[in-house]
Design goal:
The protein has about 280 residues and is mainly α. Helix content is about 75%, strand content about 0%.
């Protein structure tokens, strides 16, 4: 009878990685494209009649843009804790469905306070998508393999930024249809698409390797062994582990690097689309 080592040696590791890539990366990519579009589509709406219809004055526009990030920052860690308690396909699909519905609701707001409320809850719903996706990747790949996958996943931001403006330009021609302004159609249509993605995500988002039905038992054991983690729903977060994390300079530098990249991405997605209108004014 062959030993586990002999069985693992019979596995084509490169072919298995390609199989994992095909099953894990595309769905997370599509999810984050939808998340980022729903996050920044307000910038395109602000170039239309939204400010005048909702009577936005003074710093209200900036407050609406900023309020999103308050719950987004506060709920990132609690969201990952919940992801550990639940299956990733349940939690992530729930988050996607929630922010799709909230985006849809933005198309029907009648006042500044209504817009503020939807932006706040959009931040709550989207808080778990990015950290949850990275957390899932850490269970499927070794640390040295994650960077390339993370780069591909992160490129979804620039895909969303590139096509968001084109979509908004096309949707802007829908002004007056069903008695609704064009900026409302941006939220309604993109929200509807996100709801559909959320429903599909329930069936497509990969769980932890041990629960992957699309792998054989041997392949599941091999992935768990090679990555060296099988935490799943266990593994309590301790103060000692948290302290050790922040004592590692690589984690600090990584956080600073991510902050710099993220700042540029959000600036290009949220602020830049409004420059043209401000210049014309």
């Amino acid at each position: 009878m062959p030993t586990p080592t002999e069985i693992f040696l019979s596995i084509d590791e490169k072919a298995l990685l390609r199989k994992i890539d095909f099953r894990v990366i595309p769905v997370l990519f599509i999810i984050y494209v939808a998340a980022f579009l729903d996050r920044v589509n307000i910038s395109n709406a602000l170039t239309m009649d939204m400010p005048s219809e909702l009577h936005l004055v003074g710093q209200q526009t900036n407050i609406v843009l900023t309020i999103f990030f308050v719950p987004y920052i506060l709920f990132e860690i609690p969201s990952n804790i919940l992801l550990k308690r639940l299956s990733p396909h349940v939690w992530l699909s729930g988050c996607i469905l929630a922010f799709g519905i909230i985006t849809l609701c933005q198309g029907f707001v009648k006042s500044y306070s209504g817009l503020l409320a939807t932006r706040f809850f959009l931040g709550v719903a989207e808080a778990g998508v990015f950290p949850g996706s990275i957390y899932i990747l850490s269970f499927w790949y070794k640390r040295e393999e994650c960077q390339r996958r993370f780069t591909l996943f992160w490129s979804s931001v620039f895909t969303a930024t590139a096509f968001g403006g084109l979509l908004a330009s096309a949707i802007s021609k829908m002004h007056g249809i069903r008695g609704l302004s064009n900026w409302r159609w941006i939220f309604i249509l993109e929200g509807m698409v996100t709801v559909l993605i959320g429903i599909m995500a329930f069936f497509l988002v990969p769980d932890f390797p041990k629960k992957a039905r699309w792998l054989t038992n041997t392949e599941r054991d091999f992935v768990i062994t090679r990555v060296g983690t099988n935490e799943e729903r266990g593994g309590a977060i301790t103060s000692g582990g948290t302290f050790a994390f922040f004592m590692d300079i690589k984690n600090i530098l990584g956080g600073i690097s991510y902050f710099a990249v993220d700042e540029f991405a959000f600036c290009s997605g949220v602020i830049v689309p409004t420059y043209g209108k401000w210049i014309q004014e």
